[in-house]
Amino acid sequence: MLISCDPGIKGALAFFNQHGCMGVHDMPVRAKPTAGKIKNEIDPVALQKLLRRNVPADEKGLVVMETLNAFMGSGEERHGSMASQASLAATKAVICTVCELSGFDMAFVSPREWQRFFGIKATPSETTKQQSLRLARSLFGMEYCPLQKHDGRADALLIGRYGQRHFT
C-alpha cells in the first residue's frame, strides 16, 4: 500500500494499492486552540483514523510525502512569516509522527523532483498548481478533484503516481 501526502492545511492524502488509486482525502484539520495568525492545524487523531480506515491492519504501508522547506531569509528575502514557517515545521512533525507511530515507512520527494517527472513548470499562462490539477484530472478523472480548490488532492495523486514509479 502506498499513501501519498501533499502536506499542509490545504493538503491531501491519496491511497494506492496494486490496482491503482483507492481514494483521495483532504488533510484532516482542526481549529488551533491558541490565538494567533495561524487558525488551523493538522488533527493527529483524525489523521491516524483516516490512515487506519484506508490501510488494512495486516498491510504495510509506505508514505511518500512532499518535503517541506521553510523559506528563510531576512527582510525582503523572507518568504512567509515566522508564524507560517513554524506552522509548516509543526505540520511536517505531526504528519511524520502519526505515520511512524502507525507503523508506516516514510519516503520524501521534493516538489521540484516530482514536478519535473511530470513536466510541470510554471508558465505565464498556467501556475504549477493549475498544471497539477489539469494533469491529475486527465490521469485519474474529475471525481477526485472536481473543484479548483482541490489542487492539494491533485498534488497528492501525482506524488502517489511518482511514488509508484520510484519507490515500489
If you had to describe this structure to a student in words, what would you say it looks like?
The protein has one domain: Nucleotidyltransferase, domain 5. Helix 1 (44-54) packs across helix 2 (82-101) and helix 4 crosses helix 5 (151-167). It is α/β, with parallel strands linked by helices and 168 residues long. It has five helices and seven strands; from the N terminus they run E-E-E-E-E-H-E-H-E-H-H-H. It has helices spanning 44-54, 82-101, 111-118, 128-140, 151-167, and strands at 2-6, 12-17, 20-26, 29-31, 40-42, 62-66, 105-109. The strands form two sheets. Strands 3-2-1-6-7 form a five-stranded mixed β-sheet.
- Radius of gyration computed on alpha carbons: 16 Å
Query: CATH homologous superfamily, by name?
Result: Ribonuclease H-like superfamily/Ribonuclease H
- First-residue to last-residue Cα separation: 9 Å
- Overall residue-averaged pLDDT value: 91
CATH level 1 class label: Alpha Beta
Task: Report the sheet-strand fraction.
Answer: 15-25%
CATH T-level fold name: Nucleotidyltransferase, domain 5
Query: Low-confidence parts lasting 5 or more residues at pLDDT below 50?
Result: none
Strand order of the largest sheet: 3-2-1-6-7
Largest sheet, strands/sense/barrel: 5 strands, mixed
H/E series: EEEEEHEHEHHH
Whole-number count of domains: 1
Number of strands: 7
Instruction: Please work out how many helical segments DSSP would assign.
Output: 5
Morphology call: globular
Q: Assign a percent range to the helix content.
A: 40-55%
InterPro entries: MOC1-like, RNaseH_sf
GO molecular function, one term: crossover junction DNA endonuclease activity
